[in-house]
Write a structure and sequence with these properties.
heterodimer; A: about 200 residues; mainly alpha; Rna Polymerase Sigma Factor, Chain: A; about 65% helix; B: about 350 residues; alpha+beta; 3 domains; 16-stranded mixed sheet; 12 helices; 16 strands; about 30% helix; flat
Chain lengths: ~200, ~350
Amino acid sequence: MASIGDRVDVFAASLGRGAVTNLSVLATTDDSPLVSAAQAGDRVAFGRLYEQYARMVHGILMARVPLSEVDDLVQEVFLVALRRLSTLRDLARFGAWLAAIARNRAKDYHRRSVTTVEVTDDGSETETGSGVSGSAGNNEAAVILAAIRSLPDAYREPLILRLVEGMTGPEIAARTGLTPGSVRVNLHRGMQQLREKLGRWRE
Amino acid sequence: MDKDYLWDRSGEADPEIEKLENVLGRLRYNRAAAVFPEIPVRVRKSILARLFQVPWAPAAAVALLVIIIAAVGWLVRPKQVALGPAWNVTKIAGTPRLESKPIHANGGTAKLGLGQTLETDSQSRANIQLDEIGTVEVEPGTRLRVVRMSELKRLALERGTIHASIWAPPGQFVVDTPSAVAVDLGCAYTLHVDDSGDGLLRTTLGWVGFKLGNREAFIPAGAACRTKPKVGPGAPYFEDASESFRTALFKLDLEGGSAKERNAELTTVLAHARQHDALTLWHLLPRVDQSQRSRIYDRLNALVPAPEGVTREGILRGESKMLDLWWNQLGLGDISSWRHWERSWSPENGVAK
């Protein structure tokens, strides 16, 4: 059965059902016209915003929730954004606003998971689920991801956006609304801690 | 600015970072756009807001709005907008509420989407059509939420009663409750959760698995199973078992008590056990201490002799392979089917797909 992201949609088709766009091209793009058009009800414009920001949202969630939940939550974040788009006043801050929704959605996920028992998601966060299990390479990815997720909050997000989603530091800053300086510092400090952690694990 | 590969991929590549990029890059997000609905009506309020910036517009717009609201207000009751894929919800009685809004329009139908909550009061009932995999009838006094709508369908039943009729392959419909997870194995069942989080599952057709951590119960048609928060599912029992059997079972299995009390309850259970109550005795084996296990072994062995490969010593040690072998002698199906479907959603072997 098709999941949310697998379903065919009119505008997805019109976009060639394209995968998420290469963000490096878009680092300096002003998204305000797209956001404005989406606020006026243009679903194609919203689809383009999805293309440009899906990896950022995915990375933010991957830093916080079990991998098996991330894809569904990405869709949820965009649906929440679509529903609340009219409340966004500073169109140039769309990325920061969307990032905040993603971080809040991750918090909601953890709040909800304690109110009902979900045996499969009981906090073990074993990265052996769909998307990671299987080959030795995937197991290695799971181990590294676990190491990143054991780092302090401030380092996880930029490292995942850089190493998993393939964004550069300037792109991370532009998309998330954080200052380039803080992103750069956190990337380097996080990378240093990751090297130490992986080094210890290999010994 | 200095060349800095980590920052902007400038300068000489750092081999370790390159390796991390290669390994982790396979987790990169690459999914196409989702099924986004029409931009909700209230989003378009921003257009109205702009109208108010025109000097003559506010008075006219307000007057127009008042007329429209007064004339057709009852026709434009709030609609529940399901974002993304959704299941059809039909009102059966009363006024079920979806996301706190009553289901009125469209002949009492609405769309229930991911993350949304459906609630019935003491007078209302509703039916959820789960795409092509089955239906869930929602009884009065129920609150449930949609947790997952992908290949695996997952609801969280916070309180109340549902009747599920599922014709999907086993393992594709899961219901979380405050005290256990119900996994459909191709069946029809009723699941009730009270305000304290206690639950009762009654299977009317096929099989249901009920699980919390390592505590699991397999509930065939005609059987039921109680569950308690922080304890998990009790041993299932056939509903035609005697009152004495059931009362003693609940005390023994779910309420604890002193060793002396538990031994007394076990004595009652064993004395009233009939051959098909082997279902219950088998479930009790891993849940009791050594001395009680020995007594259960004797009674179960008298009702359904242990097959080849199953020894008293092995059962007393709690060997799961022997327990599974014995289960297959009970005439209740092959346990390997459960083990197979369990793998598709249990934490030991991955996560819900």
